[in-house]
Structures are given as structure tokens and as C-alpha cells.
Amino acid sequence: xxxxxxxxxxxxxxxxxxxxxxxxxxxxxxxxxxxxxxxxxxxxxxxxxxxxxxxxxxxxxxxxxxxxxxxxxxxxxxxxxxxxxxxxxxxxxxxxxxxxxxxxxxxxxxxxxxxx
Length: 116
Prior knowledge:
The chain has strands spanning 3-7, 10-12, 18-25, 33-39, 46-51, 57-59, 67-72, 77-82, 91-98, 104-106, 110-114. The chain is mainly beta and 116 residues long. The strands form two sheets. Strands 2, 4, 5, 6, 9, 10 and 11 form a seven-stranded mixed sheet that branches.
């Protein structure tokens, strides 16, 4: 049974930082593309960043230069370091593991709120 468990969300002031973690189990983690998505109230879920099995990353323009995705295959964990947070970064952040159209899994999400 595949499980993706996110942690690290919370309330932070504008300009602050958070580090999200997603611990994966039940899959061959190293071969999966791992991604972070977010969904703000009333908006569609959007890609924040993803990282391939080879370590190649892709980051949304809206967070480029502020957010960094990384992975530790030995720990079956993917991270999202978020710096210089803005109120518009407020959303539920979801971890995704994708190998193909069938092997495509989601975590339950973690809330990030940026507010003074």
C-alpha cells in the first residue's frame, strides 16, 4: 500500500520560511518523479515543483528563486524548502509520486498559511 505523508506546514509571517517533507512508503521511491502541488481556496491545483529520478528539477515561475525541491532516496523523502513566503503562497500543499498513468499517487496535503 502506497503512502505519502506530508509534514511541515503551518502558519508563517510574510517573508518567513518553511520546509515541507513528504515521506513515501510502499513504492520504489527512487524511480518516481516526485512533485509538490498546491491548491488555494477557489483555485485549481497547480504544480509548484517536481524532481525526476535523476534529480532534474522544474519549478513554477511563481516560486522560482524562492522555493527549492530536493529528494533523499535513502530516506524515501522529498522536500520543499520555501523561503520569502508571500500571502499568495497560502494553500494546501500536496505531495505527488508519479511513475506512469497508473502509478500516480497523492498525499493528503498540508496547510500552509502566510499571514501577519
